[in-house]
């Protein structure tokens, strides 16, 4: 049989990086880490995009909000 033209893509299962590395803390004082979980417009990325588990996503959300409140992270980006 011929292939019907559909290509099968291998989808790698996303694994929570915080569950993998127990020594990686989620802290509001680390904006370099938190920026990986924020879009370029300043929105918090959902779990399905980042691959974090529910517990760590909630912790990330709280720490990002703390960092915004203390001005370690911006609420929004500059409007052009």
What this model shows, in words?
With 80 residues, the protein is an all-alpha fold. It has a domain at 17-69: Ribosomal protein S18 (30s Ribosomal Protein S18, Irregular). 35% of the residues lie in helices and 0% in strands. The longest helix has 16 residues, at 54-69. It is flat and about 60 Å long. The model has no long low-confidence stretch (mean pLDDT 88).
Describe the secondary-structure layout:
Elements lengths: L16 H4 L10 H4 L12 H4 L3 H16 L11
Top-tier CATH class of the domain at 17-69: Few Secondary Structures
H/I helix tally: 4
Instruction: Provide the succession of SSEs.
Output: HHHH
CATH architecture of the domain at 17-69: Irregular
* Strand tally: 0
Task: Supply the CATH superfamily name of the domain at 17-69.
Answer: Ribosomal protein S18
Which class of secondary structure composition applies to the elements? mainly alpha
Shape: flat
Poorly predicted tracts of residues: none
Mean of residue pLDDT values: 88
Terminus-to-terminus distance = 54 Å
Beta-strand portion reads: under 5%
Query: What percentage of residues falls in helices of 4 or more residues?
Result: 25-40%
Rg from C-alpha positions?
Answer: 17 Å
Multimeric organization: single chain
Question: What profile does the largest beta sheet have?
Answer: none
CATH-derived topology of the domain at 17-69: 30s Ribosomal Protein S18
